[in-house]
Every structure is written in C-alpha cells, then in structure tokens.
Amino acid sequence: MRNLWIFINRYNAFFLFIIFFLVGIYLTVKNNSYQRSVTLNSSNEVVGTAYERLNVFKRYLNLGMVNDSLAAENAKLKTSLLALTTIDSAKDVKVVDTVTNQQYTYLAAKVVKNSITLRNNVITINKGELDGLTRGMAVIAPQRGVVGFILDVSAHLATIQSLLHKDAKISVSLKKNNALGSLVWGDGNFDIKKAFIKEVPNHIKINVGDSVLTSGLGAFPAGILVGRVSKANVATNDNFLSAEVNLYTDFSTLQYVYVVKNKFAEEQKILENPVKAK
Amino acid sequence: MNSRVIIVNVIRWFILLFVQIFLLKNMGFYDLSTPFIYVLFLLLLPFGIPNILLYLLAFATGLTLDAFYDTMGVHATACVVLAFVRISFISISLNKDAIDDPEPSLSYMGFQWFSLYAFLCVITHHLVLFFLETFRLTEIGYTLMRCGLSCIFTLLLILLVEFIFYKRTSR
C-alpha cells in the first residue's frame, strides 16, 4: 500500500493529468449538444452493427427451413409450369353494357401462385403490364365472387392483394336496400370462406341470407355477387352494424380470375385529383 | 513563492484573459487562424509550482474561457493537456534541482529553449482544442490546417509579447 502510494506520488503529474483530462472530456460531451449527439450516434452504430452480425447468424440457422420452403415452392412452380405450356389464348372479353360507351372489359388470367394461410395473402397471376394491367384494378372470380386488387405489376406478371389481406377493403351493398358497407377480412376471423361487412349504418336491418353485391363505388363494377349474410348482427363497439358474410369465392381452389379494366379509371383519377395527376 | 510572484501572475491572468476574450475572440482569418494567447499565462507560471496547483489553474483558466466561448469543457481539456506537456517537457529538458530561474520565460531561458517549449505546448493545446471542437475525423484535413495556422498565429503573438516584456538578465 505504501509502495503504491509512493508510486502514485512519483508519477502524480500523469495521474492528475488523467483525472483532469477525463473531467474535461466529460464536461465537453455532456454540455455540448453536438458532441453529445456524435457520441450517442457512434454508440448506436456499434449496437446496430452487433445486431446486424447477429442477424447473419440467425439467417444461417434458418437455412434449413428456407430450403424446405423453397423446394416446396419449386415443386408448386414446376406443376404450374406444366399447366402453362398450353397456350393461353384468353383475350379481352367484351361485356355487354347498357350504356353506349362500354366502361368495363374483363381479362382472364391464370393464377400461378396463391396463398390462403397467411394473415396477408397475395395471389400472383400470369398477366402483367404488357396486357394493360395497372395497380389498383379490381379482380373478380370466374363465376361469382370478388378476389381483390392488383398490387404490383411486372412485364408479364402481376400480384393481387387478395381479399384475405389486412389492407383489402371492398365497397359492397345489400341487394335488397342498397345499404352501403365495406367488406373486410380478418379481425379475429381467419376463415377463408367468411368475411365481414362493416360500417353499415345503424338504421339498416340486415337479415341472414341477404345477398351482398359490389356497390360500384370502388374499382369494382356494380352488381357483382359477393356472398350471403350468414350472421346478421355481430357486436362491435362503434356506432355501425356489422354482419358476417359467406363468400362465394373459394380462394383455396382459385384457378382463373378476371381482371376488370375500367376504361374511365384514369379519367376519374385525374378529375378527382387534378394536382396529383400532373 | 512570495507574494510578488502571486500578484504578478494574477495581473497577468486578468490581462491575458481580457485580451483573449474581448479582443482576440473577434479576430481570425476566415475562421482558419484564431490566436489563443491566454495559454501564455500557463506557460509562464513559476517553476516551483506544485503539479496539482498547475492542473487546477489550467482547468480553471480553461473553464473561464469556455464560459465566454460557450464551449463547455473544450478549453479546459486542452489546458489540462498543455499542463501535462509543460510538466513533461520541463522535467525532460531541465535538471530539476539545478533550476535557479523563477519562471520559464524568454528573458530567463533564452530564445531557443523558450521557442521549443512554447511550440510544443501550443501545438498540443491547439490539437486537442480543435479536435474536441470538431469532434469528428472526417474533416481531418481542414481541422489540421486550422490547427497549424492558429498555432503559427498564437506563437507569433506569444513571442511578440515576450520580446516586448524582455528583461535583460545577466545570462
């Protein structure tokens, strides 16, 4: 102990320097906002890099699982490849419209990838930008029922935001009294055959078995059958009515879909948002 | 240490800080060369001063400057570094027992020793000062240039002051 004291005393210049220097640095970093932000940032950088490293290892550990899913996807893609070898001769199908100017045309497309088990499901079809598809177009099922909206388009393919997606919201109406509501999926119910109509005004009476149609307010043409009400009044905590709907669309066996092209979509967009369109 | 030395140093402290804060703070060439003459006070403290007192004086002087420059801690740290360099240089270059001069000034120590002493102290002080102020290494070229030019300016002023108050001794 005595020797230590002698040692410290002998080199007191250095030890005092360390003490005063650290106090000075501490004051600098603590009291100047710029210096403080820099030290904080660099420490964040350290933390960020550490996490990045960790993620690399985690990815490595997951490789087996990823491999399996890729193999499964490969098998599925190969199967659909066999189906694709037949030449797809689907052309724009004209739909007779009562108005002289035909507003909607349908384009058939084949489903090349589908998912129904996720919270947010996305379907891929074999028509893309070259076929005139753009983002936001409505997609319907062949016989009856709605599918979703075009999410992204590439040259030959497009993805559809299926109704089984948290952002999908379709404007619908009840056939008997034209009451409007919006069709959503999820919210505690993950049955792919059921969806909810929400935001129906309180004074409307909904009965089990009522037909639900698209309202024509969104991208969908009016009057496409969506489903049938299976449970009339589902309790919600807002001032609107909700009802459960049995969907006509069977997402698990979806093979072909129709993309609805709205001839006036662009015109409507420009009209409603003159500034944005420019 | 008699009272005369204390009074001289106190007066020197006030004059140098006054000049630094009210005159030299407003001077500078394109933000590149800013003189810090106040370090002369630390350079001219007497040889016999205890280390702890030297560090305390350096720290206090730096903090006073910081208060006026709004750079809390930057000048204080730089002054502490200067004090360390001062102690190291004196203990290396001079035989501690044979020192009979009262203070390390130009008049007592001669031009060669004093200019080297002042240069080493000022350059370390400025390096610490400017790097703490910039606090990043990406602008290292600009910082070094500021540091070098300011160092030249400060050294010129220090030598000027020392020559003005040159006392002819029997050396």
**Largest sheet of chain B, described in full?**
none
Distance N to C terminus of chain A? 82 Å
> Number of helix segments of chain A?
6
| Element pattern of chain B in H and E | HHHHHHH
- Give the oligomeric state: heterodimer
Query: Main beta sheet of chain A: strand number and arrangement?
Result: 6 strands, antiparallel, barrel
| Percent of residues in β-strands of chain A | 25-35%
The N- and C-terminal alpha carbons of chain B lie at a distance of 22 Å
Shape of chain B: globular
Report the uncertain regions of chain B. Answer: none
Radius of gyration of chain B: 16 Å
What's the CATH architecture name of the largest domain in chain A? Beta Barrel
Question: How many β strands of chain B by DSSP?
Answer: 0
Helix content bin of chain A: 25-40%
Helix-strand topology string of chain A: HHHHEEEEEEEEEEEEEHH
Structural class per helix/strand content of chain A? Answer: alpha+beta
Helix content of chain B: 55-70%
State mean pLDDT of chain B (0 to 100 scale): 87
